[in-house]
Amino acid sequence: MGEIAMAHASVLLTSAQMGQADNMTIASGTRGITLMERAGDHVARVASEMCSSQGRIAIVCGPGSNGGDGFVAARHLHQAGHAVDVLLLKDPAGLKGDAAIAFGQMGLPSQIVEPAELKENLSGCDLIIDALFGAGLDRPLEGNAAAFADTINKSGVPVLAVDLASGVNGSTGEAEGAAVQAVRSVTFFRCKPGHYLLPGRDLCGDVSCVDIGIPESVLHEIGPQTFVNEPTLWRDAWTVPGRAGHKYDRGHAVVFSGPMSSTGAARLAAGACLRAGAGLVTLASPPSAMMVNASHLTAVMLRSVEGLEGISDLLADKRLNSLLIGPGYGVSDDTSEAVSVLLNSECAIVLDADALTSHQNAPEALFTQIKGRKAPVVLTPHDGEFVRLFPDLVALDKLARARGAAARSGAIVLLKGADTVIASPDGRAAINSNAPPWLATAGSGDVLAGIICGLLAQKMPAFEAAAMAAWLHGAAGVEAGAGLIAEDLAPAMRPVIARLVEKP
């Protein structure tokens, strides 16, 4: 990304990158204890919002900088009139650096507690501040720390996490063992991937990201490549139609239909493709399915296409510029051969559903053909389809899986789920977070594939098109609301797109 885009996109920092940002800020003249003081002050402010001045707050502190933030918060909360209990996981004699300074400045009594004692200490609290471990933890909680997390969760008391819920990996969102369940978290400078990837997103609750004085300029040296998927990431790559424009300026997309018994998926995709802004959309139908497709289509055009020869004849029309194959098309060698013909074209292509599964026995051949073409390809697997194409990558965390698949295939990979990840072969990745659970319904993925195809028809870069499509899909799901079915999504996109036009 360019410098302007980097400045405005919602950057996510891994734990290591956040440490780098801290170190660069300290090296430029800001003391570490100053950053800790600002962080703890923000935690105290949020805690005060969550708990009345008469409430009792227990702050459970670990042995590192996260505990140091807790010590600062304890001092501020005490000065504000709150009753504060500072509970320690380990002997404070082992504290080092800024955490030791913060402990010395706290001026409040504290006690080392064993897991068996913690339950009693938390009894009667109105709020717990989890200052055990932040994003720097890269291993599962063990021993007393794991027991602390379990006791905190069983207490029934609301939890405010400092930086990240303890037990959650800040870089991956994974929680391999015990983890604290927070209702809110306060993090600093930039959020981490673990705030957006599951289960971290659920464990961290509502997240507030606050400024502690780290300059924006450090981002350019760090060069982060992970982003929150929101309009700032792709809005400048999307062109709103101009007054003098016409439909041919917005591209001509083709969606390939399956046989008569499974045509609905392609029609859903074609309708979403048109709604996403493609100037023209043609549904390429087997002759046997022409009647059923014709009875359902209006603005989407229809063309009879039979076999590989029919596909080649269709693609001879150079006005076509984006293609989608897979929804309801059927899993077979014929499908993989049809994909190969499409890949020989100069069109941007979306491969979804059956087009992916049809290559499960020879994925490398598919990837070789993708890498040999100039026009982009977007793959849209869910977890089941992903394992068929990339079985050796499944053990990795979700960001690493998507990035590894993009690098191997040469395609943009949109790895679907409640925390969809969009990854590019160049290393960029975006995490989508606006999808409501109601999107988990039959045909929803077909709509998403169609939106991508429609944006590609408008000549959006493929990474931005896939990211925008995932966001539009989620926003349409929110607009349609509880009880939605796939047919509701394309109409729900209209007000969502209107708001994007009104607020560029």
Strand order of the largest sheet: 1-9-18-17-16-15-14-13-10-11-12
| General shape | elongated
Assembly status = single chain
| Main sheet summary | 11 strands, mixed
Counted beta strands: 18
Mean pLDDT: 95
What percent of the residues sit in helical stretches (DSSP H or I)?
Answer: 40-55%
Which strand-content bin applies to the residues? 5-15%
CA-atom Rg in angstroms: 26 Å
Keyword list:
504 residues; alpha/beta; seven-stranded parallel sheet
Walk me through this protein's architecture:
This protein has 504 residues and is of the alpha/beta class. Helix content is 42%, strand content 15%. It has 21 helices and 18 strands. Strands 1-9-18-17-16-15-14-13-10-11-12 form an eleven-stranded mixed beta sheet, sandwiched between helices. The protein has a seven-stranded parallel beta sheet with strand order 4-3-2-5-6-7-8, with helices on both faces. Strand 10 (252-256), helix 11 (264-275) and strand 11 (280-285) form a beta-alpha-beta unit. Mean pLDDT is 95; it is low at 1-8.
